[in-house]
Design goal:
The complex is a heterodimer.
Chain A lengths: L2 E3 L4 E5 L4 E3 L2 E3 L5 E8 L6 E7 L7 E2 L2 E6 L4 E6 L8 E9 L7 E3 L3 E6 L1
Parallel strand pairs in A: 2-12
Antiparallel strand pairs in A: 1-4, 3-9, 5-6, 5-10, 7-8, 8-9, 10-11, 10-12
Chain B lengths: L4 E3 L2 E4 L5 E6 L6 E8 L3 E9 L2 E5 L6 E5 L5 E5 L8 E8 L5 H4 L2 E2 L3 E5 L1
Parallel strand pairs in B: 2-11
Antiparallel strand pairs in B: 1-3, 3-8, 4-5, 4-9, 5-6, 7-8, 9-10, 9-11
The chains are: A mainly beta, B mainly beta.
């Protein structure tokens, strides 16, 4: 069974600094998708970034980028120039392809606080 | 496009009652998934519907059921409520087309259920 592990329950970063959130996963599949979602206090789950496993290039969305290491099954999120609005719970998630069921499997989350 | 909507946003029920939650997906999305979020268990997959058919089911008792209508709107029902059913119930939709964009799930704001 696939699993997702986030080893950092809490992280803190100074405003305008850079922070990296860690995520590892376990799967025997070669084709899948990885996501980072952000859940602020409103509890609305917001997509931050997506990575297709078949793409070697790391995904980037403005201040957010990932370091995808397929062989190591590692998928970390880097937030540059951190802003107060980045404070939230961040979840790493794995989704198998259509033929494998496709449900999202989440890590336990990392709560990020941003200090002014 | 309008996002995923869920109704009601908050519910208070007593043990033994039943409850029905509703989810309207993003226009054009044919897949709807449901997740339960609790502090202890985190985010857990309940089930997924595609074109009115249940494609995938998580490890929940039979008290949890769902359905999808021809317009892709979905409902989930929990019968004989227990205290442990208190949770945030999240609905997510996706287009299920090929490629990363089609595999991305977009979440609604959730329904917070409290069972007394």
């Amino acid at each position: 069974a696939q699993t997702v592990t986030q080893s950092q329950p809490e992280m803190s970063v100074q405003e305008a600094e850079t922070v990296t959130l860690s995520c590892t996963y376990d799967t025997s599949e070669s084709d899948y998708y990885l996501f980072w979602y952000k859940q602020p206090p409103s509890r609305q789950m917001i997509l931050v970034i997506r990575q297709e496993a078949y793409k070697q290039q790391n995904a980037t969305e403005n201040r957010f980028s990932v370091n995808f290491q397929k062989a190591a099954k590692s998928f970390s999120l880097k937030i540059s120039d951190s802003q107060l609005g980045d404070a939230a719970m961040y979840f790493c998630a794995y989704r198998a392809t259509y033929n494998q069921g496709g449900k999202l499997i989440f890590g336990q989350g990392t709560e990020l606080s941003v200090k002014p | 496009k309008a996002g995923v909507t869920q109704t009601p946003r908050y519910l208070i029920k007593t043990r033994g009652q039943q409850v029905t939650l509703s989810c309207s997906p993003i226009s054009g999305h044919r897949s709807v998934s449901w997740y339960q979020q609790t502090p202890g268990q985190g985010l857990q997959f309940l089930f997924e519907y595609f074109s009115e058919t249940q494609r995938n089911k998580g490890n929940f008792p039979g008290r949890f059921s769902g359905r999808q209508f021809s317009n892709s709107r979905s409902e989930m029902n929990v019968s004989t409520l227990e205290l442990g059913d208190s949770a945030l119930y999240l609905c997510a939709s996706s287009s299920w087309t090929s490629g990363g964009a089609g595999q991305t799930q977009y979440f609604g704001p959730g329904t917070r259920l409290l069972v007394l």
